[in-house]
Write a structure and sequence with these properties.
The protein is mostly helical and 213 residues long. The protein contains ten helices and no strands. It folds into two domains: 3-36 and 125-209, Cytochrome Bc1 Complex, Chain D, domain 2 (Orthogonal Bundle); 38-122, Cytochrome Bc1 Complex, Chain D, domain 2, CATH 1.10.760.10. The longest helix is centred in the first third of the chain and has 22 residues, at 3-24. The model has no long low-confidence stretch (mean pLDDT 90). The structure holds heme C (2 copies). The site of one heme C (HEC) has 25 residues, from helix 7, helix 8 and helix 9.
Length: 213
């Protein structure tokens, strides 16, 4: 093959390589912008320090609620009150001292982040958005359209979840058990060890909100 012949093969190939990874998938910046939101970081803080007493949806149904009667979180009490009780504990606001003071334990950023998370903690779809953006975007993309950074590595590719024709039960099952158990690609991992049942239901509630009819 002469120089001209090999160029005619190489140029389209190079063009294809250049086009596909860049335009088919998101940039690392898209991913870090998505993950670097206060409420997303705050979700991690909340799960590590608050779920035990307040419960996953802040309804007071929690493992420790037999020890302390934790009321359902009342967001109408306003930002100032919420910030004060988190920083200084229940006693400082004339409430149950079983609510610890977090000033020493959490950084300034973590306190602001957990307050951002509390503002959405009662909405299943908003909690689910955080589950999704913390765990699923590398494959399914920040928008859920299947264009995540790792998507080009897999065949079949990660589903475009904005166009899914599956019902909520099916989605819950495949997220819990993984693709292989459902006769689909084993690349779709089972999440039953990393995520709670509540988090999986929340993710399914979020997926409903991104469907494009
Ligand atoms: C050891 C159990 C415990 C832990 C852990 C805990 N809390 Fe509390 N929290 C309580 C109790 C009990 C109350 C209720 C105080 C009262 O109303 O008398 C409360 C109240 C609150 C309130 C006020 C709610 C309202 O409606 O008045 C907020 C906000 C709050 N907690 C946030 C947090 C955050 C954020 C974390 C994690 C960083 C956390 N709590 C961890 C026990 C806990
Ligand atoms: C390592 C890549 C990867 C990750 C991470 C991943 N998925 Fe998947 N997912 C896939 C692939 C690949 C498929 C398509 C399987 C097939 O078609 O056989 C899929 C399919 C699905 C489906 C089925 C959709 C339909 O319409 O059939 C759902 C729902 C889903 N994933 C949700 C999630 C959620 C929620 C998360 C995060 C908690 C997640 N996935 C994380 C790769 C991934």
């Amino acid at each position: 093959m002469g120089a001209k012949g090999s160029l005619s093969v190489l140029i389209p190939l190079a063009l294809q390589l250049w086009l596909s990874p860049v335009f088919a998938t998101e940039s690392i910046r898209d991913v870090s912008d998505t993950r670097n939101k206060p409420a997303i970081r705050g979700g991690i803080v909340y799960h590590a320090y608050c779920t035990l007493c307040h419960g996953e949806s802040a309804d007071g149904k929690a493992r420790a609620s037999k020890l302390h009667a934790v009321p359902e979180l009342d967001l109408s009490k306003g930002h100032e009150y919420i910030e004060k009780i988190i920083r200084h504990g229940g006693k400082a606001v004339g409430k149950n001292e079983a609510m610890p003071s977090w000033q020493e334990e959490l950084s300034e950023e973590q306190i602001n982040d957990v307050i951002a998370y509390i503002s959405i903690v009662k909405s299943p779809a908003s909690r689910g958005e955080i589950v999704f953006k913390s765990n699923c975007v590398l494959c399914h993309g920040t928008k859920g359209d299947g264009k995540g950074r790792a998507s080009t590595l897999f065949n079949p590719p990660p589903s475009d979840l904005t166009k899914s024709d599956k019902n909520d039960e099916y989605k819950k099952a495949i997220i819990t058990l993984g693709g292989q158990a459902m006769g689909r690609s084993e690349v779709m991992p089972p999440w039953n060890e990393q995520l709670t049942e509540q988090q999986i239901s929340d993710a399914v509630a979020y997926l409903k909100t991104i469907l494009i009819p």
